[in-house]
Amino acid sequence: MKTKPTEAERIEMLRRAKLLTGAEGAAHAMRQINPDVFPVYPITPQTPIIQTFSKFVADGEASTEIINVESEHSAMSAAIGAATAGGRTMTATASQGLALMIENIYIAASMRLPIVLAIGNRALSGPINIHCDHSDSMLARDSGVIQFFVENAQEAYDFMIMSVPLAENHDVLLPVLVGQDGFTITHTAEPILLEEDEDVQNFVGEYEIPYPLLNLQKPTTQGPFDMPDYYFEHKRQQQAAMDAVPDAFDTVANHYAALTGRRYDAIEEYRLEDAERAIVVMGSSAGTMKEVVDDLREQGEAVGLLKVRMFRPFPTKKVREALGHVQKVAVLDRAMSFGSKGPLYMEVAEALFGAGPSMQNYVFGLGGRDLFPADIRQVFENLKNPEEMREMQYIGIRE
Amino acid sequence: MPTIKQLAANEAKEKRFRGGHSLCSGCGIPIVVRTVLNSIETPVVVVNATGCLEVATTRFPNTAWNVPWLHVAFENAAAAASGVESAYRALVKRGKLPADEPVTFVVFGGDGGTYDIGLQSLSGALERGHQFLYVCYDNEAYMNTGIQRSSATPFGASTTTSPEGKISFGKAQQRKDLTAIAEAHHVNYVGQSAISHWHDLSDKVKRAVEVDGPAFINVLSTCQLGWRHEPREAVKVAQLAVDTLFWPLYEVVKGRFRLTHIPEEIVPIETWLRMQGRFKHLFKEENAGALEVIQQQIFDEWERLKERDRNDRAHFAPLQKDQTFTTEFEMV
Ligand SMILES: Cc1ncc(C[n+]2csc(CCOP(=O)(O)OP(=O)(O)O)c2C)c(N)n1
User: Fold this and answer.
1) Any chain A CB within 8 A of the CB of B60?
2) pLDDT at residue A351 is higher than 80
3) Is B87's CB within 8 Å of A63's CB?
4) Is the ipTM above a cut-off of 0.90?
5) Hey, CA dihedral for A20, A23, A26, A30, is it positive or negative?
6) Does residue B320 lie within any of the structural domains?
7) Which pTM does this prediction carry?
8) What region holds the Pyruvate:ferredoxin oxidoreductase core domain (chain A) (predicted)?
C-alpha cells in the first residue's frame, strides 16, 4: 500500500534532488549506464533525451558510440546489429519513429536482443500531432517487447536503469520500451533523485549475451530463415521469455530498492484495499488521479486507483488480486483500438473475467487533450451506476 | 593479379562459405560470395539482406556460413552493418576486443535490397563512413519472390511485373545507375565487376577493403531462371554482358575513374540479348525500334566512360588493351 511521504521526508528528498525533466532523467540514466552503442534519429518529444545525451558524450561524460542514422528504421536496424555484435545498445524514439521501427522491433524481440528504448509517448499520424497519447507504444503491443509506462520523471530515470538488467537477464533477453508521456513528463521539470554514477554502473554490470556475433572463434548464423517446421517453436520460446519477466523484474526491483530505497512493482495500488470504486490508468495522469482520490476520500467516498506500470507482459494476476474485491472499475485508455474497446480495458477485463466487478471504459487525452480533476471526479460519479454507461465513453470531447 | 590457385588455397585454409545450400544450378551468387570472401585476408563478418542468398543458405537449423553472419531484414543490411561495425569500434575502444586483430565487415545484398528498398540505408551508411564493404549482387530483378522487376532491370526485359505482351515490350524504363549513385557519396572506393571476371572482382575486393571508410562493389550476377538461359551458360552470359559493353568493368578510386577491362572485340548487344528468354520478344518485328535504342544507349554510355577514363588515366599506371589491372596498381 502506497501512502504519501510525510512532510519531513519530502523536505529531505527535495534537499537531495535535482530539478530535471523526464527526458533529462532518461539521458542521465544513459550517461550512467554508458552503453556501447546508441543509434538514433530525432523526433519530438524524444529530442531532449538525445540532445542531452549527445552533449554528455561531447563533453566526455559518456563514451558511447552514437550513430546518427538516417531514419528510425535504420536506428533499430543498427541497434540490432550492435546488440547482436556484443555491445550494450540503447535507442530512443516516439510516434512516427516507433511506427517506422516496428518491423525491426519484432525482429529484435525474436532475436532476443536486450535493447532498451526510451519512448516519449506521442500520438500517431494522421492527422499529424506531436502531443501525448499511448497509441505509438500500442503499435508494439504484440511485438514481443517488455513495455513500461511511467508516471513521472523519477520513474523515467529509475525504469531506464532497471530495464537494463531486466532485459539482459538470460531467461528474458528481450527489448524493453520505457514509455514516458510526451511533454507532460519529457518536458516537465521535477525534483528527481539521481544515484551515484558508480552505483548505477555496478547495478547494470557488464553486458553479456550467450552468442555475440563478434565471437570469431565460434561463428554463428543469426537471423536465419525458418520454415513451418521450426517457426512455431521459436515463437513459443518468445512466450517463455515473457513468462520469465515477472520473477526477473521482482529480483531487479528488489536490488534497486536496496540501492535506492525505491521499490517498484508492475502495478501501483493507491488507496485500493477498501475501495468500492476504482480507476485503472497508465502514465502521468495517475498523478492527477491520486489528488482526486485523496479529495474524495476526505469526503468519505471509498475510491481508489490502480496504476499499471508494466503493460507487457501484462500483470494479469496482480491486477486481479488488486481489483478482485472492487465492485466498480473504470479503465481509462489513452489509445484506441478502432472497432473495439481500449487496449488497457481489454487486458483488465481479461484479468477480471469471472471476478465480478462492473466495468466501464473511457478514452481520454488523445493527441494531448488535457484531463482535468473534474473529469476524473465525473468518472467516479458515473461509476456509481456503471450499468448506465456500458458503451465506450470519451472524456472531454465535443460530439 | 590473383591466381585461381591463390583463391583456392585461401578457401582450402578456411572454407568460409560451404556447400549444402539450395541456390540453383547456374546461379551466379555463390561465385560472388566465394570470390569476395576468399580475397579477404582478415577474418570477416557478413551481413546479408533478405533475398535468394539469405534464404537459400540459412534454412534453420542448417547454415552454409562458416563465418559470423547476420540477417535482419530486406531494406536494412547496411544499417545493421553500421551497428555491428560501431559495436566493434566501441568494444575495441573499451578494451573488450583486441585492437590489433582487424576484422572486415562485408554486406551482401541483391539489386532489390540495394537499388530499391535498401538504397536509403546504404546511402546513410556510406555517408556516415563506416568501415565496411558493400557488395551488391545484381541479377537485375527480385528473383527470390519470383522475378519481379527492380530498378536494376534493363530496359526491354520481361519480368513477372513488367511482362511483355500484346501492347508491351517489357520494362519501359532505363535501369538506375547505382554505381554512380554510390560514387556520388565520395567514398574512397567504388567498382563494378561481373561473375565472369573473377580476377577483376578479386582485385577490386582486395583494394576496396584497404581504403579508409566504406567501399561499394556492384557485381553483375546471373539468374538462369529470371534471365532464362541455359544454367551451364551462366558465366558465358556474364562474359558477354561485359564484351557487349552492357556492363562495363571499372572502378573509381578516391574520385579517379578508370576502366579495368577493355574488351578485345566489342560484341553487338543482340548476341547477348538472344541468349536470354527475358529478351526474346524484342526480336519480334514490331520491337526492332527497341533494339536500336538499346544498342545506341550502350555505345553512348561507353563513350562517356571512355572519356572519363581518358581524363583520369594519368592518375593510374598504364594498362594494356584487354589486360585487367593488377594489384600492383599505383595512383601516379
Ligand atoms: C519489407 C519487405 N518487402 C518485401 C519483401 C519480400 N521480398 C523478399 S526478398 C525480395 C526480393 C529480393 O530481391 P533482390 O534483392 O534482388 O535479391 P534476389 O532475390 O535476387 O536474391 C522481396 C521483394 C520483404 N521480405 N520485406
Assistant:
1) yes
2) yes
3) no
4) yes
5) negative
6) no
7) 0.97
8) 275-376
